[in-house]
Amino acid sequence: MLAVPSLESTVVVSDDPIFAARLSSLFVRQGRYLPVLDGPRMGRQDASNEVVRRRNAIVMSGAQKVLIGGLLPAATGAMRSGWNDCVVSDQHDDHVRALRGTVKRPLQSLLWGPDNLGVGLYQARLARQELQPELAVSPSVDVVEAGTHLLVAVERGDLLAEVVASNLAFACGASFALLPELPEGECESWLEEMYELAQGGDQTGRFSDLAARARRHIGQLDFCRYKTVLFVTAGFPWGIAAPEVASTHMYRYPDFGRAVVEGLWASQRADRSARTALLVDPQTVGGSEIPAINRSLLKNGTLTRVVRGPAATQTKVQFLLDLLPYDVIVLSSHAGDAPGERLTYEYPDAEGRQRRLIVDQAVGIGYDPGEDKFAVMTYHRFHSLDGVDWRDKEGKAALPVGTAITTWQAMGGPIDRQDCIVANEPIPRVVGSMAIQLHDGIWLFASHGFAPGSAPLFVNNSCWSWHELSQRTTFAGARAYLGSLFPITDAEAQEMGAALFGRYIGQELHRALWRAHRDIYGSPGRRPYVMVGLPFVAICVFRC
What we know:
Elements: E1 6-7, E2 10-13, H1 17-24, E3 32-33, E4 36-37, H2 47-61, E5 65-68, H3 73-80, E6 86-88, H4 92-98, E7 109-111, H5 117-126, E8 130-132, E9 143-144, E10 147-155, H6 159-172, E11 174-179, H7 184-195, H8 203-218, E12 228-233, E13 246-251, H9 256-267, E14 276-281, H10 290-299, E15 303-308, H11 314-323, E16 328-332, E17 335-336, E18 340-348, E19 354-368, E20 373-385, E21 388-389, H12 393-398, H13 404-410, E22 421-427, E23 435-438, E24 441-443, E25 457-461, H14 469-475, E26 480-484, H15 490-503, H16 509-521, E27 529-533
Parallel strand pairs: 1-3, 2-4, 2-5, 5-6, 7-8, 10-11, 10-12, 12-13, 14-15, 14-16, 16-25, 25-26
Antiparallel strand pairs: 9-11, 17-23, 18-19, 18-22, 19-20, 20-21, 23-24, 26-27
Helix pairs in contact: 1-5, 1-6, 2-9, 5-6, 10-15, 15-16
């Protein structure tokens, strides 16, 4: 088992990666993780939840000192209050003075540039030097070799994520590597290819071809040297390119730093891994694996709650997730992008410009008999604005987006959104909606957070369930998520459930998944399941 790092008594909150890297280089104790959190995004409609998630993570870390710098004033104001020892400054030396007695400032410095920060930070800490980003260009080093038990491999493109991942690698004594960034358009194309594997043809061959392309993109990195690889990704499941090694993933954005804190918090004590479990079986698949998983968890000493058949409704499942803390959540159903509508809106924005916005919309409707109310959840995906495809970054850059989106979001008073619809057509699939089939219809899961005091392991044993849902659940605070990249049979779902919750229970989940893939599929040509979460996550054995 990998040793779970303990947490430093200091937390850094910053959107400035150089600021965060310089402070991180002062902390050189092995086996200790220095949390670095990005600031809350105060321009979002759910800005208060952005603040709450980060403040909760600081509480989870047990930090005695909070260092804030490199944030916009609104974010600073939201994060600074309530801490016994909080330093707010954009000046590095102010924080160094505040850390006297906590860390000893190194006598030597490592000169570095404004990029490649993860490598520079790791090298500085190993040499017990203070990182000084004074060079015009950083040295072109991609790998820092340390232990072979774990490799933290980070997709380039987000310097703050590099800093967070470098801190994690240092705390674990792991090796650290930077991977070439996959352009956003190409990433979307590859993920769409994976989603379309269900459309017939040689599914295994097409998946193997995609995995080979991903491996070529990564380059010459030898994964066989390591027992485990943690991929920090912008969205693509790089683990499919390295089936020879057990792997897991984390998203570099959003909330990467917060997700690491919550994952470590949940992994540091075995009694947080499987005290309670929610098992959801809407009876939409034949031969569900839920009864067998329930027996395994009961044997393990876990208190389980099974929601089956007509009880597995949208409102009830959402209620249970929002209000009751569970360590394990398992769903057995079907999943996939939902059908919906393509709506065309024409309206004046707040600046008086006439806009034409095309939006794809999926709707999930649940009924709460206790309240005699309908719960309506909508998922929107922007398709185009004023004739420019929403995925066209260059086109949007030349387009005065201005207040077009905020005006549309705020509609409801004098201007009703429905009154601005000039065209409406049904579409067979709203890309990214990723609905789960419950007993009373499709469930569009979207949550700001699970019940307080929980960081659940979320296992979604449904077709296509990794897409989108892995990001939504980890964003909401799940310590790990496990789902499939493409359609699976009922027999596959049953075998995977038996492996994870039966013969491999108690092992680190990413390693249990790797072994289950080997048992079920043999060759690496078809390995549909992917994990998101830290490599320490496990369902610990309490009683057999």
